[in-house]
Specification:
heterotrimer; A alpha/beta (about 500); B alpha/beta (about 425); C alpha+beta (about 120); A: about 500 residues; alpha/beta; Aspartate Aminotransferase, domain 2; seven-stranded mixed sheet; C: alpha+beta; OB fold (Dihydrolipoamide Acetyltransferase, E2P); globular
């Protein structure tokens, strides 16, 4: 795009008196309507929002979008984020007028279809997760973790076992795990990983006592390796009276293969914006449903959507509603004012129906195949610290040739020049030069082959003309933003910008 | 592709998974559907709602005009299908609209700074509580007005219970926060980290918070205001009341109701509290060629770096909805939001007159100023009113508060004729 | 005399009971450009190993732990405006001045040479 013409902030496009709206006439005069409200309750200072016509706004945001990179723009091999394609039908369903206009406190008699959609999705997730019931109320993965940990605390509380305040997480866990535990009033204890990133059972065993509320794990783990000892770990944890929590961040390769419930997990969350293909939206909105095994359903957050009738023919139409909301006495409380990000839930249900049982059975194995294919083709040029079959993702420890001075960051930035999003870098922390790649099942072999070719060409450049890689990216809309200055003297609003120097 | 991996069969990719854990049967789920089947499925589900009801329900979430340009632009796939903008070189679009959003929210709330969104109004209020407690070091009590939205209160109570915070309610007298009770509780407890009050309150009343900030600050506590965003274009702002944190839901800025979400929690604060603010924040800086650009900043506060020491665990937020409300506010401007508030207020006053004309219903808290929502006390049963309105008039008349109390909201979306119809059904209620 | 903790704080004693607390040159180098230091207030008391604040660079953060039982008597205000002073000279640009309440705890800490060995081993 043309930065000279279009690099303005919307405030800089504002002109006094412009407007981009035309309100309907309600038939009730409204001029000076607020004069009846005591002036001390009204704001003094005008909010100074931008004043723009519609075309100005449309051009502004359209041009801004061209400075962005999405899954629809190009290949997005971002490890641990599952950037799969988001089918368009899901967007159409999410904005269906029969749902988009529905108030969250519409009585059950007028929202049966919406409650049924919620019910269908939670049932499908139960089947996929091997759980007894799901709540779809949590808004995101981290919110799901928090909710799941509250379920676990409520469970221990209900048994009068209030001394369990520790959560054990592997040292390779995502930062959200310890943060969620802290918000839920729990303490974190780290268990060591073995060199392949799997949990060290011998290190875990002595940690398990009556102070432990839960063990939180992902499986496969952050390095894309399946935790083979999971049945034994689950047995040890349950013997100690604690529960097993499954962080669903890495569920995708397990689709069609194995279920967390069968692995011995008691509570889990799923990121609908990863495994079930709802768009990431530049950081949200997501959705983080939480599932529990049988016996824990009553602790789920309120409201729960319940189905009040087994045989639907029994009840005369219009007499009773089949689906209703319940605020149970044993519930952990509420984590949201509504049933969560409902339009995101609709997208996920649409995705599940579109793939169907047969499509979902293939999703995990194909994601895993794509990851292994890329790994095998690149391991001659990039250092693969853990040999063997990976799952949906794998981690390189930078370039194989360490003499070039080219870092993982340089490789990532060079990929931008070729029209690819960078992989996840410097995570997990187990390696110094982590480069984490997750291709997902929605990419074709041709796409993967081209990516491999580019990755190899970067490795070649690193040997022959390292300065090219080190100076990458060459032609992005911005080069090397000064994030130190941004953190030293934060400028967080337009008003601060006007008063500052940038 | 399998050959490249040295394998013969797909299932060898899972040779490390113990056999007893492997799925034996395909999922018990419906068969694959084509797009027309999926459409039909959702059309049928949708027909089991009662779509198209004229909506007088509020209680924190309001039907407002959703501009076509806003609905359309958030569907730009460069915005929609992008990840969190950790790579500033290819995320300037996302980063810039978040910066614009932060700027607009700060001006709307009268606060100095804003973060890049929370989930919804309820969790934003709960996170404001966590933030105040983190800033208050060892103080672990919050005073919460009984007049805040009860759906928010449930979430605040839940977070407080598990996080180990004591919630002490401040009584509501005549529909507003009792200053006397607040003063007594502030005097009785030395460990108050924050006082949480609403703008406007759950009953639609615009409370007078004069002198409140001075009182709260004299006890070294923080003042948190939980607000309905669009109302702040007209009402005295948290900034003008002297609040330290403003939070709430920005759904009222034209976001479709969608049966509960996605909405948009917001959290704004004074600059002094910047380092305790939860969630992502975008800052302006320059690149190596001196060009203005934007980056995620203050990241060291966040969960991916601070882990268990972070104020919050929030990671994914409601990012795309900040784009939606930025577009909305750019189209409407302050004048548009104020015009909406005037129309909503005029409509609410008119509807209240119609509903109380026959003497069988009355304002629950008479004499208290309201903007666009009021609590009606009825001689007839609220359930009867709701069911008659839904079935006979295609109207959702409000949100039931008790058997004889209903919360009714008016926006620019309902006409005089809709209100007359609602009043006509009410007159027939026994 | 300067003493170091395993969590990379130093305490430089001015006399028997008063000293300056800061972070070691090794820690400052590991962290990179410091952008913010969260420090306690004058009069705050901490027991040994209790966290008293945090130090942040752009992409990292580290908690600060009390090397010994102590009471804060002065906070280095210059760091609020210019936290990068720590990178320039972490010994001169201390975090705060403290009164040590149990000087016997100093003996549990490392001296210059022991700390150098400790860093070499952990790197």
């Amino acid at each position: 795009m043309n930065r000279e013409l279009y690099a303005s902030l919307v405030f800089e496009l504002s002109a006094p008196g412009r407007k981009g709206y035309f309100l309907p006439d309600s038939g009730i005069p409204a001029d000076g309507a607020l004069d009846g409200i005591p002036s001390g309750l009204l704001r003094e200072k005008d909010p100074q929002l931008p004043e723009c016509d519609e075309l100005t706004v449309v051009r502004h945001y359209n041009n801004m979008s061209t400075n962005n990179f999405g899954v629809d723009t190009g290949f997005y091999p971002l490890g641990s984020c599952t950037m799969k394609y988001n089918p368009k039908i899901n967007e159409e369903i999410a904005s269906h007028p029969a749902f988009s206009g529905l108030h969250p406190y519409t009585p059950a008699c007028a929202s049966q279809g919406a409650l049924e959609a919620y019910w269908h999705l939670q049932k499908a997730l139960c089947e996929i997760g091997g759980m007894a019931e799901f709540t779809l109320n949590p808004f995101a993965g981290a919110h799901g973790e928090l909710t799941g940990l509250m379920v676990i605390r409520r469970y221990h509380e209900s048994r009068g076992d209030t001394g369990r305040r520790k959560v054990i997480v592997p040292d390779s866990a995502h930062g959200t795990n310890p943060a969620s535990a802290a918000v839920a009033g729990l303490e974190i204890v780290e268990v060591k990983s073995r060199p392949d990133g799997t949990v060290d059972v011998d290190d875990l065993r002595p940690l398990l006592d009556e102070s432990v509320a839960a063990v939180m794990m992902t499986n496969p783990n952050t390095l894309g390796i399946f935790e083979k000892n999971i049945p034994e770990i689950a047995r040890l944890v349950h013997e100690a009276g604690a529960l097993m929590y499954y962080d669903g961040a890495n569920l995708n390769p397990m689709l069609g293969v194995a279920r967390p419930g069968d692995m011995g997990f008691d509570v889990m969350h799923i990121n609908l914006h990863k495994t079930f293909s709802t768009p990431h939206g530049g950081g949200g909105p997501g959705s983080g449903p939480v599932g529990v095994r049988k016996g824990l359903e009553q602790f789920l957050p309120s409201p729960r959507v319940v189905s009040r009738q087994v045989n639907r023919d029994d009840i005369p139409v219009g007499e009773h509603e089949r689906y209703a909301l319940e605020y149970g006495p044993e519930s952990l409380g509420s984590v949201s004012a509504t049933l969560g990000n409902f339009a995101v839930q609709l997208r996920a249900l649409s995705y599940i129906l579109t793939l169907g049982a047969e499509g979902l059975m293939e999703a995990g194995p194909l994601a895993t195949l794509n990851a292994n294919y890329v790994k095998e083709k690149l391991k001659a040029d990039y250092l693969l610290p853990i040999e063997g079959v990976c799952k949906h993702e794998f981690v390189f420890d930078g370039l194989r040739d360490k003499s070039t001075g080219v870092t993982t960051l340089n490789v990532a930035k060079r990929l931008l020049d070729h029209g690819y999003h960078a992989p996840t870098i410097y995570f997990p922390l187990l390696f110094h030069e982590s480069l984490m790649i997750e291709p997902t099942e929605t990419e074709s072999r041709e796409t993967l082959d081209k990516f491999v070719e580019v990755m190899r060409s970067i490795a070649r450049e690193a040997r022959e003309t390292p300065e090219v890689v080190i100076n990458a990216p060459l032609n992005p809309p911005v080069t090397h933003p000064d994030d130190t200055e941004a953190a030293l003297h934060p400028i967080l609003t337009y008003d601060e910008l006007l008063n500052g120097k940038v | 592709m399998l050959g490249q991996c040295g394998l013969n069969e797909l299932k060898e990719l899972y040779s490390d998974v113990p056999g007893e854990l492997m799925l034996k049967e395909p999922y018990d789920l419906p068969k694959q559907m084509s797009e027309p089947q999926v459409r039909r499925f959702f059309n049928e589900l949708g027909s089991r709602n009662r779509p198209g009801l004229v909506c007088f329900a509020g209680a924190g979430f309001y039907e407002h005009y959703s501009p076509a340009a806003a609905l359309n632009l958030v569907q730009r796939s460069e915005f929609l299908t992008a990840y969190t903008p950790y790579q500033p070189e290819i995320s300037q679009g996302t980063l810039q609209y978040i910066f614009e959003y932060q700027s607009m929210m700060a001006r709307l709330t009268g606060m100095e700074i804003s973060n890049a969104s929370m989930y919804d109004g309820a969790t934003a209020t709960a996170e404001a509580m966590l933030m105040a407690v983190a800033a208050g070091r060892k103080k672990r009590r919050v005073l919460v007005s009984e007049t805040i939205n009860p759906a928010y209160r449930r979430v605040v109570d839940t977070y407080a219970h598990y996080h180990g915070i004591e919630v002490t309610p401040v009584a509501a007298v005549d529909g507003v926060t009792s200053r006397q009770d607040l003063e007594e509780k502030l005097a009785a407890h030395a460990d108050v980290a924050a006082v949480i009050v609403p703008v406007p309150n759950y009953f639609g009343i615009i409370e007078d918070h004069s002198g409140l900030a001075g009182l709260v600050h004299s006890r070294k506590a923080l003042l948190v205001m939980t607000c309905v965003a669009s109302d702040l274009a007209s009402l005295r702002t948290p900034g003008e009341w002297g609040a330290d944190i403003a939070c709430g839901d920005a759904q009222s800025l034209g976001i479709p109701l969608s049966f509960g979400g996605p909405y948009l929690g917001f959290l704004c604060a004074t600059k002094a509290l910047m380092r305790k603010m939860p969630g992502r924040v975008v800052g302006a800086t320059t690149d190596s060629e001196g060009r203005r650009c934007f980056v995620l900043t203050l990241q060291a506060r966040e969960q991916h770096i601070r882990r268990e020491k972070a104020t919050s665990n929030i990671c994914s937020n409601q990012g795309l909805m900040t784009l939606y409300v930025s577009i909305y506010m750019s189209l409407m401007g302050a004048a548009g939001l104020q015009e909406i508030n005037e129309r909503s207020h005029a409509g609410a006053v008119y509807l209240l007159e119609q509903l109380t004309a026959d003497g069988r219903a009355r304002l629950r808290y008479p004499g208290k100023p309201f903007l666009n929502e009021f609590l009606l006390e009825t001689d007839y049963k609220v359930d009867t009113l709701i069911h008659s309105c839904v079935k006979k008039a295609g109207i959702l008349p409000g949100v039931k508060v008790s058997d004889h109390e209903i919360l009714i909201a008016v926006t620019e979306m309902q006409t005089r004729e809709d209100m007359d119809r609602l009043a006509a059904v009410a007159r027939e209620c026994m | 005399m300067v003493y170091y903790s395993k969590t990379h704080e130093y305490i430089r004693m001015e006399n028997e009971t008063e000293g300056f607390v800061g972070i070691s040159a090794f820690a400052a180098k590991q962290l990179g450009n410091v952008v913010y230091v969260d420090l306690p207030e004058e009069g705050d008391e901490f027991s040994q190993a209790e966290d008293f604040g945090a130090i942040e660079s752009v992409k990292a953060a580290s908690d600060l732990y009390a090397p010994v039982d102590m009471e804060v008597t002065e906070v280095n205000e210059a760091l609020a405006d210019n936290p990068r002073l720590i990178n320039d000279d972490p010994m001169a640009n201390y975090l705060m001045k403290v009164t040590v309440t149990d000087s016997s705890q100093l003996e549990e800490l490392m001296d210059e040479a022991a700390y150098a060995d400790f860093c070499a081993a952990s790197h």
